[in-house]
From TrEMBL:
Taxonomy, superkingdom: Bacteria
InterPro entries reported for this sequence: DUF47, PhoU-like_sf, Put_Phosphate_transp_reg
Organism: Thermodesulfovibrio aggregans
Position of the signal peptide: none
Family statement: Belongs to the UPF0111 family.
Coiled coil: none
Protein name: TIGR00153 family protein
UniProt cross-references to PANTHER family, sorted A to Z: UPF0111 PROTEIN HI_1603
Length: 210
């Protein structure tokens, strides 16, 4: 697999190293957000925006290098698509961090435990995606990592249901309080969908190279 992907030299290696960096920054962003969720330090969520800007610079570098000729033409769109999915996960995480700063404390406390669990799972899924990418360019078992990510995503779906059930019992009098908590939960639980999509896409690329 690795030999097929390189097929050239320096440009491909540069892209692969940059993708590893991109994924590590996503892991740092999810961990930073998780810490803010646990401690309820809303100002701490600004680290997500800082890391998103750093990741955006790495993403542009990856795309530029690919357009400079890295990889065989047939695989370039697939690599770019994988990067776009990871980039969307960054965007949704940043949206979750933004909404969290406006969530009313008394409403958040009702679903705090579930939100912490979702946040922890998001962090674990990021780490697994990074490991899956290493397996993709090496000789590891990508299928096993993809399966583990799907199991995690199912757990987030279950937690989303639990959160919805709790919120249904809360009387919310202000429209914006309701919209903010709804958007926050929606963004928080969508991150796992995108990580699963990125993992699935990696597996599709691997199958296409066989």
């Amino acid at each position: 697999m690795f030999e097929k992907l390189l097929s050239g030299g320096k440009l491909e290696k540069k892209v692969i190293e940059s993708i590893k960096t991109h994924l590590k920054i996503l892991c740092s962003a999810t961990e930073c957000f998780e810490n803010s969720i646990i401690t309820e330090q809303k100002e701490g969520t600004f680290c997500v925006s800082d890391l998103e800007r750093e990741a955006d610079s790495v993403r542009r570098e990856i795309i530029t290098t690919i357009h400079q000729g890295a990889f065989l033409p047939f695989i370039r769109p697939n690599i770019c698509k994988f990067i776009e999915i990871v980039d969307e996960a960054f965007d949704i995480l940043e949206d979750a961090a933004f909404e969290f700063r406006y969530v009313k404390d008394e409403i958040y406390k009702i679903i705090k435990n579930e939100c912490i669990r979702v946040s922890k799972i998001n962090s674990e899924m990021c780490k697994l995606l990074s490991i899956a990418f290493d397996a993709f360019i090496g000789k590891g078992d990508l299928k096993e990592k993809s399966l583990a990510i799907r199991i995690y995503e199912k757990q987030v779906d279950d937690l989303k249901f639990d959160i919805s059930e709790k919120l249904r019992t809360v009387e919310i009098k202000d429209f914006w309080d309701g919209k903010t908590i709804n958007d926050f939960v929606g963004y928080l639980t969508k991150i796992s969908d995108l990580i699963e999509d990125a993992s699935d896409y990696l597996y599709i690329i691997e199958l296409s190279l066989r």
